[in-house]
Specification:
Elements lengths: L13 E2 L2 E12 L2 E10 L6 E4 H6 L7 H17 L1 H5 L1 H9 L5
The chain binds zinc ion.
Zinc ion binds next to loops.
Length: 102
């Protein structure tokens, strides 16, 4: 049921990995009322309410799994390029034992 005026209908659209299932609710965000939509992520995670504006702007393209994957990839890339890894694994192991992840 879409009874809110001035809300762009996003149902059955796909944004990145998110598929919009239905209208969730209007939420007050600052001074504005914004439409949130129930979305299903392609990774199969539980349904999530996402702001329509975030969907349209491309800010939100997944339940969060995409940014988690990107973050993991960045860590891998940084590690491969880090001086510690180039010098040898013993240096990297020392860093890990000290709890530093620079
Ligand atoms: Zn996901």
């Amino acid at each position: 049921m879409l009874d809110a005026p001035n809300v762009k209908d996003e149902r059955f659209k796909t944004y990145g990995r998110l598929y919009v299932i239905e209208f969730a609710e209007l939420r007050s965000v600052g001074k504005h009322r914004k439409a949130f939509w129930i979305c299903q992520c392609a990774c199969g995670s539980p349904l999530k309410a996402v702001c329509g504006e975030a969907l349209r702007s491309g800010n939100t393209v997944s339940c969060g799994c995409v940014s988690r994957i990107r973050a993991a990839e960045n860590i891998l890339v940084n590690r491969e390029n880090s001086p510690a890894v180039i010098k040898g694994r013993s240096a990297a192991n020392k860093e890990n034992q000290n709890g530093k992840t620079s």
